[in-house]
């Protein structure tokens, strides 16, 4: 494997970056984007992440200075899409609470792309509206193979195994408890060192942004400087046997062969970039008096819809923290939500479900489906002494929360064989405690 230790990154969110591989000083044109002849005989190529005319705050594009333009490839041909496919209209949806046991890791050699499986989703990549939830499970590196997604952005949440990600912008190492976002059109290749598994949120509408902070003020939650973007790194490598560029286009997989590595960018500048973020850096804000805050207080990134405050998808985490609320039932409340809640567990356990919800597994509570703490959690938390308490040291669960109605794929509901038929029983022990003659405090 290539040298992936001690990487250095550019820091900031939504910034205008520029980067040159130190092996090619001066590769970046200084005064314009498209000189008649670029330094070192490079080709200039723009990657647009928003419409040319998008408002200035939202406008995203990057200029690559590369050895060959990306167009130097043979025609695309369809390849099997496997279980990585937006077919969520094949089976009838269910409003039931769903929980998945940890997803299997293949026993045969499988790379990151071949190990992608779609669990549920909504909308349509053609009309550029919707989102999808995938899991990946793999054990082999992608060799002479890169992937890009025409349909939207991928927010990748590793749960097991380190992802060594090479992109056109340079390299990223992404470990469990970190996430990375690879946006629409960005080519990347993943090397792994062993069994690897994780979750992916794909959004078709637009890009992830940091949530507004409102009364929190200028600082808090995920801090912009903790978002890390690769520094330029390139290889000038011929691959006569063929380098495979795989893409998902309108929900289907295609491949184009070329005779060189696509990671041939000695310099780039722009604000349309891949990035990673370490979840342990999240500045947790919560109630220090009483009651349970809505989980939106833990939003790391949000992909907004056109309706203010109503996301296509939020990425929310439940990090280790102090719990100090007085005269309060501290765990999550019972509720019914107008949003869909897909949850996964990276490590440790989740306070509302100490049992049954396991690292590498998942749950889905659909729009208006009742859910909340299991009976054991209710009984324990209702009687606990309310001293300041550290919640779930070393834990990290997360939620993909969407305003869209997530529907299941055949793989998610049946083929994966991980749906736990007994999930509903975790609420079975909730007793009637009503005592008419003793009103609550
Ligand atoms: O359902 C869940 O476990 C997620 C969740 C957590 C919380 O603290 C409040 C509401 C909520 O939906
Ligand atoms: Fe919930």
Structure description:
Residues 280-434 form the Homogentisate 1,2-dioxygenase C-terminal domain. Fe cation binds at residues 335, 341, 371. The chain is mainly beta. The protein has 2 domains: 9-279, Jelly Rolls (Sandwich); 283-420, Sandwich (Jelly Rolls). The protein contains 2 helices and 28 strands. The strands form 6 sheets. The chain has a 9-stranded antiparallel β-sheet with strand order 1-16-20-13-10-15-8-7-28. A 6-stranded antiparallel β-sheet has the order 6-25-24-27-22-21, with no helix packed on it. Strands 2-19-4-3 form a 4-stranded antiparallel β-sheet, with no helix packed on it. Strand 17 (238-249) and strand 18 form a beta hairpin. The mean pLDDT is 96. The structure holds 2-(3,6-dihydroxyphenyl)acetic acid and fe (ii) ion. 2-(3,6-dihydroxyphenyl)acetic acid (OMD) binds next to loops.
Q: Secondary structure elements and their pairing?
A:
Elements: E1 9-11, E2 17-20, E3 43-48, E4 61-66, E5 77-78, E6 98-100, E7 116-124, E8 129-138, E9 145-149, E10 153-160, E11 163-167, E12 170-174, E13 178-182, E14 188-192, E15 196-203, E16 227-230, E17 238-249, E18 252-260, E19 267-270, E20 275-278, E21 299-304, E22 311-318, E23 321-323, E24 340-347, E25 362-365, H1 375-383, E26 389-391, E27 396-402, E28 407-408, H2 410-415
Parallel strand pairs: 9-17
Antiparallel strand pairs: 1-16, 2-19, 3-4, 4-19, 5-18, 6-25, 7-8, 7-28, 8-15, 10-13, 10-15, 11-12, 11-14, 13-20, 16-20, 17-18, 21-22, 22-27, 23-26, 24-25, 24-27
